[in-house]
Specification:
This protein is mainly beta and about 575 residues long. The protein is about 5% helix and about 55% strand.
């Protein structure tokens, strides 16, 4: 490792030096980030004792580019992993680890692009294949192998790849193969329909595509015959015509019994095939935007290792059709797609009242209304075969997983004052979304108010006030409220996050370098008085050029962290945090 790092340093020095008459040897770019966290045991919030007291994650990317050739490496270290990341990031002995798990070389030409080593790629919306990195979740399922992109004609792209998925600092046992064809129909038509004036199709855009992916993993033998090769395929389209757009994709997957794809017990492996459908339409014109999306998936958990769990060695991506909030209290109950069966829809309307109108005022007013719903798929268990079930694909079942009705009003009152007011009404099935039987459902209402005041051209102060009212209800398997023999409501299992919450934040920024914030969130409505806690936090951020330094201290409540519908659990903590990042 020391020899490798020394070689990299010497290479950077050689390339960076250009004497008079020196040949251009290319250039090196990159970025790095270091995140460190201290831990103090705090029984008031359930923060555990951490023997190391300080833990850190860090990475460094180096990318070399010259003409059509590029190559890169990424060094990563977890000493030990920050709490909330999978403990396997600390290496096989659990003491922390560092190394270069990501390296590649790429050559790009007009007719093809060849990548050898590690790479990320996606087919369509990702339902049958997506390799990507989400560092905040500790997710990285990059492929290690070969990827070839071909451009045989204008508007036609063919991508093929083969490799094994990254599993922490190793690779999974499965072999992954994928092929994707993307056709820009508008571009191809224009090649043949151009008239003497050189014009073709101008007012619409159409692209079509189809993909295949498969994984091979040897059948270990035993009671069940497990498929060694599991294939998935999909077809898609994307149409834009003036102010309208429409896109869709259908995917299907061969039967794939795994540790996750089970019906009701570990002995009932699921041999149903998987299916997925995504449709989305939008209309946009001056001052108005409307969109409606629909998604249904059934048995679409797809992994290159049939024994993997959580986010390890997942081959595909199933985004949740829910609004992605940044407000703190709305992160208490985030929703993630349920790959074993879900039907969901989301509608969004944005309208801007024109400047000078009665409701628009001098600077205009923006209103956003959003609705989302996710329910179980309508299924019927097959009593004759415990390994199969019948399904009404795309039909809403009875059990509700998540529902959100919200409205936000944004307004600029003058050149210095802006506000945002919002109201959100949510239904959250905690038993399904978090896999915690007995915790029931949460019905919540959230109100938020935000005001920003520009003191000068460089100084701004911003304040947020939020409140969450929560009702916790015990339910049966169909979502019906449970009652005892006397007709009284049964209480569900509760945790430190139950009850009503209040939150306030103050931010002060000095452009372009300084940012200060302090906030407190308080679960004053928790039924357990010992769990009512003020979660204080303070942060200072300094930016200069491409470098960002953040220092923080506070109590962090435990809960679920989600990014784009993919989630992980984050335990409670009390301590200092430091983050330094830069690019060059």
């Amino acid at each position: 490792m020391k020899k490798l790092l020394l070689s990299v340093i010497l290479l950077i020095a050689a390339i960076s030096y250009k004497g008079k008459g020196q040949t251009d040897l290319g250039r090196i770019t990159g970025n790095f980030q270091v995140d460190a966290q201290s831990y103090k045991e705090d029984t008031s919030i359930g923060a555990q004792k951490v023997d190391e007291e300080v833990r850190a994650n860090a990475f460094l990317n180096l990318i070399y580019t010259k003409d059509k050739f590029s190559a890169g490496i990424r060094y990563e270290t977890y000493l030990k992993e920050i709490l909330g990341f999978d403990s396997r990031w600390a290496g096989p002995n659990g003491n922390g680890i560092g190394g270069i798990p990501f390296r590649y070389a790429r050559y790009t030409d007009d007719l093809f692009e060849l990548t050898a080593g590690n790479f990320y790629e996606q087919i369509g919306t990702g339902m049958i294949f997506r390799s990507y990195e989400e560092r905040g979740l500790g997710l990285d399922n990059a492929l290690d192998g070969v990827k070839l992109k071909l451009y045989p004609a204008n508007g036609l792209r063919i991508t093929g790849m083969i490799g094994r998925q990254r599993s922490f600092f190793d690779y999974g046992p499965g072999l992954v193969r994928a092929l994707d064809v993307d056709v820009n129909a508008t571009q191809i038509i224009n090649e043949y329909l151009k008239g003497d004036n050189g014009t073709g199709v101008q007012d619409w855009q159409l692209s079509l595509g189809g993909g295949l992916s498969s994984k091979f993993q040897k059948d270990p033998g035993g009671e069940f015959i497990l498929p060694q090769n599991v294939m998935a395929w999909s077809g898609r389209f994307n149409l834009v015509a003036g102010e309208f757009s429409l896109q869709g994709e259908y995917a299907t997957k061969c039967n794939d019994p795994t540790s996750v794809n089970i019906l009701n017990n570990p002995n009932a492996l699921n041999y149903n095939k998987g299916q997925g459908l995504f449709l989305s339409g939008a209309y946009s014109t001056a001052g108005l935007g409307v969109s409606l999306s629909y998604k249904t998936v059934d048995n679409m958990d797809y992994r290159s290792d049939r024994n993997s769990t959580l986010t390890n060695l997942v081959m595909n991506f199933l985004p949740a059709l829910t609004k992605q909030y940044t407000y703190r209290l709305l992160t208490l109950y985030p929703y993630a797609t349920q790959p074993n069966g879900e039907v969901a829809l989301q509608g969004d309307i944005q309208y801007t009242f024109e400047k000078g109108s009665a409701l628009g005022g001098t600077y205009g007013t923006n209103i956003n209304f959003n609705y989302s719903l996710a329910k179980a798929t309508d299924t019927v268990r097959n009593v004759n075969d415990i390994h199969l079930y019948d399904i009404k694909f795309g039909a809403f079942g009875q059990r509700k997983y998540f529902e959100d009705i919200n409205i936000e009003i944004q307004k600029k009152w003058d050149k210095n004052i802006k506000t945002n007011f919002g109201y959100m009404n949510q239904y959250y099935n905690k038993e399904v979304a978090e896999g915690r039987p007995g915790y029931g459902i949460v019905k919540s209402q959230v109100a938020v108010a935000e005001i920003s005041y520009r003191i000068s051209s460089t100084n701004t102060i911003r304040m947020e006030v939020q409140h969450l009212w929560a009702k916790h209800i015990a339910v049966d398997e169909l979502g019906n409220e449970l009652k005892d023999a006397n007709g009284n409501s049964v209480k569900p299992t509760l945790d430190r996050n139950n009850g009503d919450w209040a939150y306030m934040l103050l931010e002060y920024s000095i452009a372009p370098s300084w940012f200060f914030s302090i906030f407190d969130e308080y679960n004053y409505g928790n039924e357990n008085a010992d769990w009512r806690t003020h979660y204080y936090n303070a942060n200072i951020v300094y930016n200069t050029g491409a470098t960002r330094v953040q220092l923080g201290y506070g109590k962090v409540r435990g809960g679920i962290l989600c990014v784009g519908g993919v989630c992980r659990f984050v335990p409670a903590s009390n301590g200092f945090s430091v983050s330094v990042s830069s690019s060059f």
